[in-house]
C-alpha cells in the first residue's frame, strides 16, 4: 500500500533530521571542548610568565580556580549536550511512533470503509516526500562532515541509520472497571427497602 511507503519515507526523513540535530550537538560539544583547551593553554602560558612575580599561595590558588573552571566548563558541555541529545532522540522516537500509528489507523479506516482516498493522497504526496528524504539525507551528511571537521578525531558522528519500519500490533483499549461504590449503591438500596 502506498501509505506504508509514505510512512517509511516519512520515518526516514524524521530519522535524518534527528541525526542532523545530533551532529550539530556533537559539533557544539567538540567546539566547546576546543575552546576550553585553548583557554587552558592561554592560562598556562600566562601563569608561566607571571609565576615568578606571584607569591606561592596566590599561584596555587589561581591554579585551583582555573582547574575548577575547567571542570565546570566540561561538565556543563557534557550535561547540555547529553540533555539535548536525549530530547532529540525521544522526539524522534515519538514522531516515528506517531507516523507508524497514523499509517496503521489510516489503513484500518480504508479497509473498513472501502474508500481509498487516503491511499490516493499518499500516492500523490510520495514523490515530494522522496525528494524531501533525499534533501534531508544530504543535509545530514553535510552536518556529519562539519561535525567531523570541528571535532577532528575526538567524536563519533552518526550518519543515517536506515531501518525498515516495524509493524506494530494495534493497541486494544483496556476495559474500564466499574467502581466498587457504584456496585455497592444498588445493593444497599435494595437492602433498605426489603
3D architecture notes:
- The structure is a single chain.
- The chain is mostly helical.
- 80% of the residues lie in helices and 0% in strands.
- Mean pLDDT is 81; it is low at 155-160, 162-175, 181-185 and 187-194.
Count of domain modules: 1
Q: Helical proportion?
A: over 70%
| Order of H and E elements | HHHH
Number of helices: 4
- Principal-axis shape: elongated
Category by helix and strand content: mainly alpha
Overall radius of gyration: 29 Å
Report the oligomer.
Answer: single chain
Poorly predicted runs are 155-160, 162-175, 181-185, 187-194
What is the averaged pLDDT score? 81
Main β-sheet: number of strands, strand sense, barrel status? none
- Strands, count: 0
User: Alpha-carbon distance between the termini?
Assistant: 64 Å
Q: Please indicate the percent range of residues in DSSP E strands (runs of 2 or more).
A: under 5%
Amino acid at each position: 500500500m502506498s501509505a506504508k511507503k509514505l510512512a517509511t519515507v516519512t520515518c526516514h526523513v524524521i530519522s535524518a533530521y534527528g541525526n542532523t540535530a545530533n551532529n550539530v550537538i556533537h559539533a557544539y560539544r567538540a567546539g566547546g571542548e576546543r575552546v576550553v583547551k585553548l583557554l587552558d593553554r592561554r592560562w598556562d602560558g600566562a601563569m608561566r610568565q607571571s609565576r615568578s612575580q606571584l607569591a606561592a599561595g596566590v599561584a596555587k590558588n589561581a591554579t585551583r580556580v582555573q582547574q575548577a573552571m575547567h571542570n565546570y566548563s566540561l561538565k556543563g558541555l557534557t550535561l547540555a549536550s547529553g540533555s539535548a541529545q536525549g530530547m532529540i532522540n525521544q522526539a524522534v522516537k515519538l514522531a516515528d511512533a506517531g507516523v507508524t500509528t497514523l499509517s496503521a489507523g489510516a489503513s484500518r479506516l480504508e479497509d473498513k470503509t472501502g474508500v481509498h482516498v487516503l491511499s490516493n493522497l499518499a500516492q500523490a504526496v510520495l514523490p515530494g516526500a522522496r525528494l524531501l528524504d533525499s534533501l534531508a539525507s544530504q543535509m545530514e551528511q553535510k552536518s556529519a562532515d562539519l561535525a567531523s571537521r570541528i571535532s577532528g578525531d575526538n567524536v563519533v558522528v552518526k550518519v543515517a541509520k536506515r531501518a525498515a519500519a516495524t509493524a506494530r500490533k494495534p493497541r486494544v483499549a483496556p476495559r474500564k472497571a466499574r467502581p466498587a461504590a457504584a456496585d455497592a449503591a444498588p445493593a444497599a438500596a435494595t437492602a433498605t427497602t426489603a
